[in-house]
C-alpha cells in the first residue's frame, strides 16, 4: 500500500451519510433487469486523474504528486496509487493513453520497452483487483512531432510513427482484455488553409483508420473501434468535428459497419450541439459506442473538462443511451479534471464519487422516464400519420404522385402543436 490515500476507506452506499459515501449510486440496484453497475460501466481516466499537473492555458503546475517524474519507478508508483483509487471507488473500469502510463524514451524502441513493462505491471495488478480496461488509446497530440497532426501530417515519417504507436497500443489493449480501442485525433485538423491540402489529409486519415480496422481483424481483437468527435481545440478546424461529420467520413471510406463513436459531453457543446443530440444521432446511425462524461464551463470558450454536476443533463443523456439499448462494450468514462485549486488526495475521491452519484441520479430518472412511456407516447402520436397506408405509399412513390394527392384529396394541412412545454414538464416530474 502507498501512503497517498492513507486513511481513506472504500466508499459505501449510504444515502443518509454526511461523510464521503455514495448517496445515489448503488451498484447492485436492479433496473430493467441489470445491476446499475452493469448499466453505467464507470471508468476512471488515467490521464486527468494521475498524469495531469493542474495547469491551464494561463498557468502551470499546481499539483504535487509523489509519482511525477519520467522514471519507471514513478510509473509503477503511479499504477499502485491508481489501483488503490479504483478499489476505493469500486470502479469497474479505467482508460489510458500510452503517454499517461510510461515515461517518454529517447527513441521509439525505448518508449516501447517502458510501455510494455507497465502493461505487464497492469496485467499483474488486474489479476488481484476488480477493475478492468474499458479502452486504451494513443496520445498523438502532446509531443511536438504531432503539431501538424498524426495520420494527417504532411511528413510521412510522422504517419509511420503514428502507425507504430497505434499498433503498440492496440496490442496492449488486446492483451489486457480492453473492451474498446479509441482514436482521438486531437490535432487531426488544420490551423490555416494557406499550408493545408484538405483532400490529401482526409485521404491519409481515411486510409489510417482502414489500417486500424484491418489490424483489429488480423490479431483477432473482439472489442470495438471508436472514434471520438471533437470540433476544435487545439486545431482550429477538426476533421472529426461532430457525429454527423464522423459518419460521413466513415461512409466515404467504407467503415460505417466497423467503427463507432465515443461521444464526449464537452465536445458536443463545443460543436454547438447538446450531448443528447449527439447521442441520439449516433444511435439513429447505428454507431453509438461509448461516452466521456464531463462538462464545460458555459462561460468559457474552451474545453474545461469538469466533473458532471447537472442531473437533468445526465438524465437526458442516459435516456438516449437506454433508448438505444444501453452500452454494449462502451461505458461512462470520467474524462474530467479536478480544479487546479483542489490539491488534496481526498479531492480526487470526492470528485469521482460526486460524479458517480450525479450520473446515478440521472440514470434512475432516465430509466423511470423510459418505463413511464409518456414521452414516447406523445412522440408516437406526433408521427402517427406516417403509419397510414397513404403515407407509406407516398414515400415509396415519386414527386408527381405526392403532388397529385394534394389535388385529388383537397389536402390543406393545419399546424399542430409540438407540445414542447408539456414534454419539458414531463421530464421535470422525474429530475
Automatic annotation (TrEMBL):
Entry's Gene Ontology molecular function annotations: magnesium ion binding; xylose isomerase activity
Residue numbers binding Mg(2+) 2? 264, 267, 303, 305
Q: Which residues form the active site?
A: 97, 100
Top EC class for this record: isomerase
Q: Which UniProt keywords apply?
A: Carbohydrate metabolism, Cytoplasm, Isomerase, Magnesium, Metal-binding, Xylose metabolism
Q: Does the keyword Ubl conjugation apply?
A: no
So what EC number does this one have?
Answer: 5.3.1.5
Q: Name one GO biological process term.
A: D-xylose metabolic process
The record lists Mg(2+) 1 as bound by 228, 264, 292, 335
The highest taxon in the source lineage is: Bacteria
Cofactor dependence is on: Mg(2+)
Q: Where in the cell is it found?
A: Cytoplasm
Q: Does the keyword Cytoplasm apply?
A: yes
Give the reaction(s) catalysed: alpha-D-xylose = alpha-D-xylulofuranose
On cofactor binding, the record's note says: Binds 2 magnesium ions per subunit.
| Subunit | Homotetramer.
The family note in this entry says: Belongs to the xylose isomerase family.
Report the protein name in the record: Xylose isomerase
Amino acid at each position: 500500500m502507498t501512503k497517498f490515500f492513507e486513511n481513506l476507506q472504500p466508499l459505501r452506499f449510504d444515502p443518509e451519510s454526511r461523510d464521503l459515501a455514495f448517496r445515489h449510486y448503488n451498484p447492485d440496484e436492479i433496473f430493467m433487469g441489470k445491476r446499475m453497475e452493469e448499466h453505467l460501466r464507470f471508468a476512471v481516466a488515467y490521464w486527468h486523474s494521475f498524469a495531469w499537473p493542474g495547469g491551464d492555458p494561463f498557468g502551470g503546475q499546481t499539483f504535487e504528486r509523489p509519482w511525477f517524474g519520467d522514471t519507471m519507478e514513478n510509473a509503477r508508483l503511479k499504477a499502485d496509487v491508481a489501483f488503490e483509487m479504483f478499489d476505493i471507488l469500486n470502479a469497474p473500469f479505467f482508460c489510458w493513453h500510452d503517454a499517461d502510463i510510461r515515461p517518454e524514451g529517447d527513441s521509439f524502441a525505448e518508449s516501447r520497452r517502458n510501455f510494455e513493462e507497465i502493461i505487464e505491471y497492469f496485467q499483474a495488478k488486474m489479476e488481484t483487483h476488480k477493475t478492468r480496461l474499458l479502452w486504451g488509446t494513443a496520445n498523438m497530440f502532446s509531443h511536438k512531432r504531432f503539431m501538424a497532426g498524426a495520420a494527417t501530417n504532411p511528413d510521412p515519417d510522422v504517419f509511420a510513427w503514428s502507425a507504430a504507436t497505434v499498433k503498440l497500443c492496440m496490442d496492449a489493449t488486446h492483451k489486457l482484455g480492453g473492451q474498446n480501442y479509441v482514436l482521438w485525433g486531437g490535432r487531426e485538423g488544420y490551423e490555416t488553409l494557406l499550408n493545408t491540402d484538405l483532400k490529401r489529409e482526409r485521404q491519409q486519415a481515411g486510409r489510417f483508420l482502414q489500417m486500424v480496422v484491418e489490424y483489429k481483424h488480423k490479431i483477432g481483437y473482439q472489442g470495438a473501434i471508436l472514434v471520438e468527435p471533437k470540433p476544435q481545440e487545439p486545431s482550429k478546424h477538426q476533421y472529426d468535428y461532430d457525429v454527423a461529420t464522423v459518419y460521413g467520413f466513415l461512409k466515404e471510406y467504407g467503415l460505417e459497419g466497423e467503427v463507432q463513436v465515443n461521444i464526449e459531453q464537452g465536445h458536443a457543446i463545443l460543436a454547438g450541439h447538446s450531448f443528447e443530440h449527439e447521442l441520439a444521432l449516433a444511435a439513429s446511425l447505428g454507431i453509438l459506442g461509448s461516452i466521456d462524461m464531463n462538462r464545460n464551463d458555459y462561460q468559457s470558450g474552451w474545453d474545461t473538462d469538469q466533473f458532471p454536476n447537472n442531473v437533468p443533463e445526465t438524465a437526458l443523456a442516459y435516456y438516449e443511451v437506454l433508448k438505444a439499448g444501453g452500452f454494449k462494450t462502451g461505458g461512462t468514462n470520467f474524462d474530467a479534471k479536478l480544479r487546479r485549486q483542489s490539491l488534496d488526495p481526498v479531492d480526487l475521491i470526492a470528485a469521482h464519487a460526486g460524479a458517480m452519484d450525479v450520473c446515478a441520479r440521472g440514470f434512475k430518472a432516465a430509466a423511470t422516464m423510459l418505463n413511464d412511456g409518456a414521452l414516447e407516447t406523445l412522440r408516437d402520436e406526433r408521427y402517427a400519420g406516417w403509419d397510414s397506408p397513404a403515407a407509406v405509399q407516398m414515400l415509396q412513390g415519386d414527386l408527381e404522385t405526392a403532388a397529385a394527392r394534394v389535388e385529388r384529396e383537397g389536402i390543406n394541412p393545419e399546424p399542430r402543436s409540438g407540445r414542447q412545454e408539456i414534454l419539458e414538464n414531463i421530464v421535470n416530474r422525474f429530475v
